[in-house]
Amino acid sequence: MAFDGITIANITKELRETLLGGRIYKIAQPESDELLLTIKNNGAQYRLVLSADASLPLVYLTDVNKPGPMTAPGFCMLLRKHLQNARIVDITQPGLERIIHLDLEHLNELGDVCRKKLIVEIMGKHSNIIFCDDHDKIIDSIKHISGMVSSVREVLPGRDYFIPQTQDKCDPLQLSYVNLEENMRTKPMAVCKALYSSYTGLSPIIAQEICYRAGIDADMPANVLEDSALHVLYDTLSDMIGQIESGDFAPSIIYDGKEPIEFAALPLTLYSDKTTQSYDSISVVLEHYYAERSIVTRIRQKSVDLRKIVQTALERNVKKYDLQIKQMQDTEKREKYKVYGELLNTYGYNVEPGAKSMEALNYYTNETITIPLDDTLTPQENAKKYFDKYGKLKRTYEALSELTVQVKEEIEHLESILTALDIAMQEEDLVQIKEELIESGYIRRKGGTKKVKITSKPFHYVSSDGFHMYVGKNNYQNDELTFKLATGNDWWFHAKKIPGSHVIVKTEGKELPDRTFEEAARLAAYYSKGREQEKVEIDYLQKKNVKKPNGAKPGFVVYYTNYSMAIDSDISGIEQVHG
Length: 579
Fold this sequence. Notes:
Shape: elongated
Strand content: 15-25%
Largest sheet: 7 strands, antiparallel
Strand order of the largest sheet: 20-19-17-18-16-15-21
Number of strands: 21
Radius of gyration: 35 Å
Structural class: alpha+beta
């Protein structure tokens, strides 16, 4: 989600409740565009992160200390000179702008009380941290913006500070029906876009949420809204503005499975089909959301090379398999050639020299068939020619029958590795997948390098009834769970005929309740290629009935007697054991 004006309003409220009246104890500049302020207030110590990073600007409270460089940058030294031990007298947000003002009171060299402002602008690539005096004159900023960089506003020492009005947007805190009607009627664009392009502080996702609450199609043109719909839209937006003004925030993170997809300062009812985790603090939301997103992004980046190797091998094997199937279809003519040869040997003495065909009764079907002949050959030579064709096609069929099975197994193996890459949550998970690719011959082990130490462990869950459930993250772990951890009467689960994890439920000699069967099946559905489907068919049986053929690839098993159930892949209510 965009770090919008509503999120800033929530942060401003949290900072006022936590830091107002506190004193700045330490100032550090860990990154070129980031400050870390340590503030003491009411006997407690807080750390405030102010980041003007162009790709990820943030403001939040944290417990994590981040060391600064050995030599403090000039901006940091300037702030230490003026603001060491300064008291925070006010924290405000102008309108719903993505801006926070920290009003600070400190003593100058003569012991006189002075006022300064630290202004944090969270505006994407234009983000900045600006230090001003009590007359809004810029003393310095973490980023200097000259007239050559921006024709709208210079951010340089000695310049006057002002908020640039680069877009003709209205303050939603001054909302009126007349104003909303004018904005909607004059904009031939989707209602959602008309909202966030008309009002400061509204992000696209919040605009979608407003439409959803109002029961209006977010993509319909704003200028064709009926009066009744416009009144509902006004009431919905007014209610949301009321929530913001009263500080009635509800910070949360929305998850799709285990992946965080959005965060919000207000409830996002449009994600009713997703899992929502609520928090008391917007700072905790921001810290968790971006930390978890960072993990997901980093793992995806690190798995790119492995994924490319697997995808290339998979495409090559699929092409090979398709060609083999086509060749197999061509060999279906072999029995016809065998019959031709036999009939020519039986009835060929009736054929006149130079004949181009022969009609004969097929004693296998009691039908008369026409056999093409080479008029330069005798009937016996024609028979031999057909027997030779039959023999060649038979040999091809026998060879392909074996090869297609091998290639099909290779395709299934590669698809299972792709699924394992989708499941991987940590770097050590990728290490084990890479090891499998090396041992399967897809990656060459670098000369002299030893086999790596594997630290990745299967997922561990506990069912609502207290049974321990284990999920393999890759083929090696699947084999280990099924044939080493599981005993004969433990239960085994797997998505039917699609790549996925082996799920083992340890019974400890007890009968499993229905609820545990369902939770284990949901895990098998979620950790499979079919996780996006509404329902996934899951096979389950006792482990003693699962076998591994000799020479089978990692993770490959066979079973002949099983139960099945179709179930969704929602695992949000299942307790995971960490560590």
